[in-house]
Amino acid sequence: MMVLVSVAPAILAIRSLSRSFGVPVRDHLNWGAWPPVTSLFPGKMFLVGLTGGIASGKSSVIQVFQQLGCAVIDVDVIARHVVQPGYPAHRRIVEAFGTEVLLENGDIDRKVLGDLIFNQPDRRHLLNSITHPEICKEMMKETFKFFLRGYRYVILDIPLLFETKKLLKYMKHTVVVYCDRDTQLARLMQRNSLNRDDAEARIKAQLPLKDKARMARHVLDNSGEWSVTKRQVVLLHAELERSLEYLPLRLGVLTGLAGIASLLYLLTHYLLPSP
């Protein structure tokens, strides 16, 4: 009876996870059969893609979300992490592009690699095919950690969210930190000590903020007083936090983990023969 009571939560949780993830129970031991990030936690926990433009105030907005206790993942940090020496993406990049892309310490020379794929769609596609799956794996790991800790949603800070479109399919909500062109120009000139021509050139090198705003589900207008922007962030956070549909699945996962731990304890201490 003790075994049945201990194992039951694990069985129930696995069946619940199977229904939620859309993966047959027998496939749960096959990690390759698990669904991509886009189908994880459907209707339960979700991802929010946040982007902006140069001098739009995205970093300041991210800080407010963090002060509110939100989970934030910086995709640029992940992208740099997965190509470090010793990681699969690093090895495959060297195999594909040669040792000329390496610095003396073994790190990837991002400038050299960038030059190699510049105006070379085939090479760019090859690089993306190497790095994108690894980035998604790390995203899923970090997201699952936040899920177990009870977060309603996770913000992904993605500078080129709408330019590359690679991660858009994973986002339930998209947010753009916007400011008007004159404000953006003035802030950039002051922040980076640039003349007008240089500042305008940097802004023109990016997708216009007005275009990003049209594509986003939510727009945080940072053109005016900071207090107004901060209030927009607080209101958006409240809107995203409002639903609590994810709690039953989370409780099921935690119960399942407890049941599996109980089963392992019984197996190792009572059911398996001593060596």
From TrEMBL:
**Sorted alphabetically, which SUPFAM superfamilies does this protein's record hold?**
P-loop containing nucleoside triphosphate hydrolases (SSF52540)
> Which PROSITE patterns did the record assign?
DPCK
Q: Which UniProt keywords apply?
A: ATP-binding, Kinase, Membrane, Nucleotide-binding, Transferase, Transmembrane, Transmembrane helix
Bilayer-crossing regions = 251-272
Name any GO cellular component annotation: cytoplasm
**Example GO molecular function term?**
ATP binding
Which Pfam families does UniProt cross-reference here?
CoaE
Any GO BP annotation: coenzyme A biosynthetic process
Per the similarity annotation, which family is this?
Belongs to the CoaE family.
Q: Per its UniProt record, what HAMAP family does this chain match? A: Dephospho_CoA_kinase
- PANTHER family per UniProt: BIFUNCTIONAL COENZYME A SYNTHASE-RELATED, DEPHOSPHO-COA KINASE-RELATED
Q: What is this protein called?
A: Dephospho-CoA kinase domain-containing protein
